[in-house]
Amino acid sequence: MVTIYDIAKRAGVSPATVSRVLNGYPDVSLKTRAKVQKITQELGYQPSAMARGLATKRSMTIGAFVKVGPDDGLRHPVFQEVLTAFQHVVGEKGYDVLFFSQNGPALQREGYEAVARYRNVDGLLVLGMPRTDPGVIALSTCGIPCMSIDLDLIGPRAGYVTSDNVGGAIQAVEFLVQHGHRAIAFIGDKFATKPGHDRLIGFQRAVQEFRLPFRPDWVLDGDFTEIGGYQAVSRLLEMSELPTAIFCASDLMAIGAMRAIRDRGLRVGEDISVIGFDDIRPASMVTPGLTTIRQRSEELGRRAAQALLRMIEEPTALPSVITVATELVVRETVRPVVPRG
C-alpha cells in the first residue's frame, strides 16, 4: 500500500509537506504542489477517509434529510437525479453521504439537529422536506453547514439551491396562451413545499399578466403524485364547465391527469391540453409525449454539493442562494384550442 512517506521520498520533500498538499493547504509553492500531485497520481495513492479525517478534524460524512413517502425520497425521479449528482461531487472529495431515517426513534425523540450532532456530520443536505416543520427550520441556525434544495433555509451557515419555479410556471402558462388557451386549470400540492408554493405564485402572476379569467375552483390539490393528479383532474372533469388546458406543477401529476382525461373518454391535447413541470424520464415515454418545463435536476445536485463543500472547507465562507434556470420542452400534449360546441 502506498503511503505519504513513499510519496515524500520520491518527491524529495517531507511527509508533512505531502500532507499539506493532499489536504489543500495554500502555503506550498506551486512547483512543489505540482510535483507532489504528479507523483501521487503515478503511484496511485488513495488516502483513507480515517486518516484524512484525523488530519482535518472532520468525519468526512455529510448527513442527508430526504422526505420519505410513496412517491418521494429515493423513489422520486427528480430526487434520484439530484442525489446522484450530489453524491458524485462530494464523493470525489472523499465524503460519504449518510441518509437519516425519519422513522427512527432517535429522530422522533430528539429532533434533526441532535441526530446530526450525534453522528458528527460535517455538513447537511435537506431535500424535499416541508417548509412548516419546526425541526427543519431550526437547522438553518444550528451552525452545521447546511444546503437545502427547493427549500428556502437561510442562516449564518445555511443556504439553498432552487429551480426558477416562478419563472417556469409563467413560461408554461405563456406557452398555453400562445396556443389560444384562456381557460386554464392548475393542479398543485398542499403548498407545504417551496416548489408547490412558487409554481402556484407563478401561475397566478401569469393569469394576471395575460389577463386570463381566474377560477378558484380550477385550482386543485394533486399532492405532487400520479394518483393525486388523477384524482384532482377526475374532480375537475365532473364540473359543468371545463378548462381547455391544465397546468400540473409536476410531471407525475400530469401523467395522472392524462390518464383521468382518457378515462373520461376525452383526448389529451385535442380536447384538453396538459403541461407538466420537471421533465422526468417518463415524460418523453408516455403517449402522447408530455410537454413540460424542465428543471435541471443534476445541476441542482452539483451546485448544492459545491456550495456545501465550500462552507465545510472554508469556515468563513458565506452561504449561497442559487437559482437554476428552467427550460420549456415541447412535445405533443399541448395543441391549439379547438372551439367547442
Automatic annotation (TrEMBL):
Name of the protein this chain belongs to: LacI family transcriptional regulator
Pfam families assigned: LacI (PF00356), Peripla_BP_3 (PF13377)
GO molecular function, one term: transcription cis-regulatory region binding
Chain ranges of the HTH lacI-type domain: 2-56
Isomerase as UniProt keyword: no
UniProt cross-references to SUPFAM superfamilies, sorted A to Z: lambda repressor-like DNA-binding domains, Periplasmic binding protein-like I
The keyword ATP-binding is assigned to this record: no
Native source species: Alicyclobacillus cellulosilyticus
Keyword field: DNA-binding, Transcription, Transcription regulation
